[in-house]
Structure to design on (389 residues):
């Protein structure tokens, strides 16, 4: 690219980024904020690590370095962790959240409240700031019900009735099978699932229960899919990178093929979360091959380097229909992450769309509609049955 063309592109991109800030985004996958008293248990740098851990390299990532400058600009303080922590303390959680959410310009947020359940604020708390809806994590529901259930049949009855019909305010189900036993989810005879249940009951020393039995997880995820299909409610799947609980080899969305081929679940839209990074091309292919597969790019944006975010979104767009790609943040625990995702989601989207115009994939006249679709309208139409706009 000539220096002139490159300069021209970046001027246009800046203008487009400004336009994209005017469009309220629909954050279709995020998590609840931490209670203030729980916050003190984590070093600040841990919130910028995909693994959620803070070791001596936690401040060495490009994401952390970039974010310290972004947050300092937002909070109007110097770009050091110390200055940011002092400003946060001064503002308090409520004001900080209001600032981050209003700057992020979000239409609504969908919260998976199955992560660190004892340490987070309820979905209701977030509703004071913006419209918030719930994503119901299937494995968490099972973990809550198993310890009290006396028999497998009773447990299964309670599990099914908790999601059939989906409770009010729930816009999607979610599975974290990728974290526990992998995405190679296969049909399991009920007897096999029941045996697993009784083994777990016998060895229930762990508090709270951390479910990782493949037979039981596969069985329950398929129960969830069957009910989702009945109500035409989307099921979000964690795919791709995450913390060390996850075996990345089993987190490729390609493992979902048996589910995608099974006509019993055809009415359940499937959302592959996190751009399936680093399996973004695989995810893009699946969305092109299967009508009910959708994609989002939360977590990849904002946790990757700028070039990593740009190439991930570009890979998703390589073959997947535009109408399948959705914005999300996967923000969790601290309000800054909702803002950072909103900032970089728009910025990277602008860059990728400008490049598409430059390449001749899109015309300049099409860019705005495509941006609105990805930031908001695709999620609006996918979740329209559960969510009144
Ligand atoms: Zn998530």
């Amino acid at each position: 690219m000539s220096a002139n063309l490159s300069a021209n592109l970046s001027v246009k991109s800046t203008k487009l980024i400004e336009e994209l800030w005017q469009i309220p985004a629909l954050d279709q996958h995020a998590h609840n904020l931490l209670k203030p008293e729980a916050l003190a248990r984590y070093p600040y740098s841990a919130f910028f690590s995909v693994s959620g851990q803070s070791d001596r390299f936690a401040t060495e990532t490009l994401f952390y370095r970039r974010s310290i400058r972004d947050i300092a600009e937002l909070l109007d303080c110097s770009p050091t962790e110390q200055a940011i922590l002092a400003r946060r303390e001064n503002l308090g959680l409520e004001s900080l959240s209001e600032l981050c959410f209003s700057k992020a310009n979000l239409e609504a947020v969908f919260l998976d409240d199955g992560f660190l359940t004892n340490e987070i604020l309820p979905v209701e708390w977030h509703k004071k700031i913006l419209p918030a809806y719930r994503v119901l994590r299937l494995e968490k529901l099972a973990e809550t019900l198993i310890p009290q259930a006396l028999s497998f049949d009773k447990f299964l009855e309670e599990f099914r009735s908790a999601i059939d019909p989906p409770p009010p305010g729930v816009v999607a189900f979610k599975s974290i099978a990728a974290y526990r036993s992998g995405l190679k989810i296969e049909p399991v005879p009920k007897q096999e699932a029941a045996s697993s249940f009784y083994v777990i009951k016998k060895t229930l020393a762990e508090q709270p229960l951390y479910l990782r039995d493949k037979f039981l997880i596969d069985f329950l995820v398929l129960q969830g899919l069957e009910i989702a299909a009945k109500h035409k409610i989307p099921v979000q799947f964690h795919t791709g990178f995450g913390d060390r609980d996850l075996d990345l080899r089993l987190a490729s969305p390609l493992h979902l093929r048996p589910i995608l081929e099974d006509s019993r679940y055809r009415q359940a839209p499937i959302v592959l979360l996190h751009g399936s990074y680093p399996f973004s091309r695989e995810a893009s292919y699946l969305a092109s091959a299967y009508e009910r597969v959708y994609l989002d790019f939360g977590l990849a944006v904002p946790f990757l380097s700028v070039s990593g975010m740009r190439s991930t979104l570009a890979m998703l767009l390589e073959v997947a229909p535009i109408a399948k790609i959705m914005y999300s943040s996967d923000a969790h625990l601290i309000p800054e992450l909702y803002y950072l995702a909103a900032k970089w989601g728009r910025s990277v989207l602008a860059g990728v769309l400008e490049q598409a115009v430059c390449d001749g994939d899109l015309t300049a006249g099409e860019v705005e509609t495509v941006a609105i679709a990805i930031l908001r309208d695709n999620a609006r139409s996918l979740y329209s049955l559960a969510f009144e706009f």
About this structure: The beta strands are 25-31, 106-112, 132-137, 170-175, 235-237, 270-272, 293-296, 298-299, 325-326. The domain at 3-55+105-382 is CATH 3.20.20.140 (TIM Barrel). The longest strand covers residues 25-31.
